């Protein structure tokens, strides 16, 4: 399914026109065309390659899944690959959607899966068209990347909130909470690692466009790309800080578990010591030898008093040391 738009001298003139009309529109040097392909087939790639003279290697990158974010320069156009990111709070998982774009002097061709919200990009273009549409392809590329980077920041921020909530549960004593903290911390770390792989290279993409040898970005658009680059840096720094945060949570969880085990061992040792006292006394008085109070009520009372007094002394001692 293809979507098209035609801008002429910064004004939107037509949209959703047939692909066959693109060549006619591009004959006017003042015209800029946007072509969007959602889940294209090989025949669509072949047609676009022929229409715009796109390089074969760029077509291979666009049609191959799981390419890393990058910016490549070809004789007649540029190509970049990026990823939109969404964070699912309930599952603690990350969903990424690959977005590729071909940039010529007069056209932006975007390629993506059905999961990417291109309507959000179109809304961003419409919101800034009055001031920036005259800058053509540079403006279209900026709007696309701006939406992608904003989505990445939202995903990282949502992950940060989940990690903070997880940190608050570290000291809960129930086994359900302990197990949930362990499972979710590893799941969130996995999600963060996946985010890093698609977020960190975005500096190369935005920086490369801003300083490209094709001079796609003119002087008036440079501040907008610099602002976009600053957003990219914020996202990457945020992601790196979460990496340290995740490691701290995992280490803290292990330390808390170790402290709990030490506490349990102290309690078990204390109760064993208390139980050993009556065992020793009764064992002593149960020997088959005469002893003070043997076969008398006074002997039973004495042994009972020893058991109670020594047990209470041990209990109070361990309690003061916080072993019980």
From TrEMBL:
The protein's name: Magnesium transporter CorA
Record organism: Dactylosporangium matsuzakiense
Superkingdom in the source lineage: Bacteria
Alphabetical list of InterPro entries matching this protein: CorA_cytoplasmic_dom (IPR045861), CorA_TM1_TM2 (IPR045863), MgTranspt_CorA/ZnTranspt_ZntB (IPR002523)
Keywords: Cell membrane, Membrane, Transmembrane, Transmembrane helix, Transport
Topology versus the membrane: Multi-pass membrane protein
Gene3D superfamilies on file: CorA soluble domain-like, Magnesium transport protein CorA, transmembrane region
Ranges annotated as spanning the membrane: 268-285, 297-318
Record localization: Cell membrane
GO terms for MF: cobalt ion binding; cobalt ion transmembrane transporter activity; magnesium ion binding; magnesium ion transmembrane transporter activity
Keyword hit for Transmembrane helix: yes
One cellular-component annotation, GO: plasma membrane
Family: Belongs to the CorA metal ion transporter (MIT) (TC 1.A.35) family.
Principal cellular location given in the protein's record: membrane
